[in-house]
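Sample 3 of the quickstart, ligand adenosine-5'-diphosphate:
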Amino acid sequence: MLIISAPSGSGKSTLARRLIETDSQLDFSTSVTTRAPRRGDEEGKSYRFVSEEDFLAMRDRNELLEWARVFGNYYGTSKDVLDSARRRGHDLLLDIDVQGAASLMKRLPEAVTVFILPPSPGELEYRLRNRSSDSNEVIEHRLREAAQEVANYGDYNYVLINDQVDETAEQLRSILVSERCRRERRTGRPETVEQLRNIRIAERCKQERMAERIEPIVESFQAGTRI
Ligand code: ADP
Ligand code: 5GP
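Result:
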């Protein structure tokens, strides 16, 4: 299980889409949400859009692996999604918020977690506005929440700064390859040159190796500066 979290607008859907498109052994965990569809959202693909009543009924029937209230809407991962990936022998990619990730880290400690940061608060604002799919009020809300979200990066195994999207997509792919190699190392099969390259890239993205580069970005979020 590969979990990615990031402040809204950092580019995690873009990165998730790219990774899924290039990996036939990785399923995307389509969440259930009560938020209204956005331009470009496809029912059953980006999300399953349901009413609040239906969402709460699913939660009460214990059908959700995790759920959280984010920006005034409910979001959750249905247990079916994980069961179906397991049946197919596939890995599962989850794009979930920091609360949902924290609850899964406790329940499924083998999950690999990646936090994605935008290069600066100013760039995050630019991306949110440029996406032009949310109202000004929603964008302001998402920017305010970002400072709290980025403070959680230390709980994740890996941290990526999504500056150049091609580079970040390669780093994310390297993390997946590297973690699969780690899992399969027990079989004693030697790694290929390409796998070793991915392992080296992933190693550089480990949270503890990134701390020095991350701290100034986190501080600028906390200072509320939009540089
Ligand atoms: P999230 O899923 O984190 O809310 P999106 O993937 O929807 O974010 O990305 C927000 C906007 O930023 C989109 O318009 C996307 O095309 C753009 N974007 C994503 N990554 C980058 C990047 N590295 N540089 C510039 N723009 C980006
Ligand atoms: P958006 O409305 O921009 O698609 O997503 C808003 C936030 O909800 C993002 O941080 C996203 O990761 C999170 N999110 C999406 N699906 C889920 C889910 O199933 N569970 C949790 N906890 N968060 C989710």
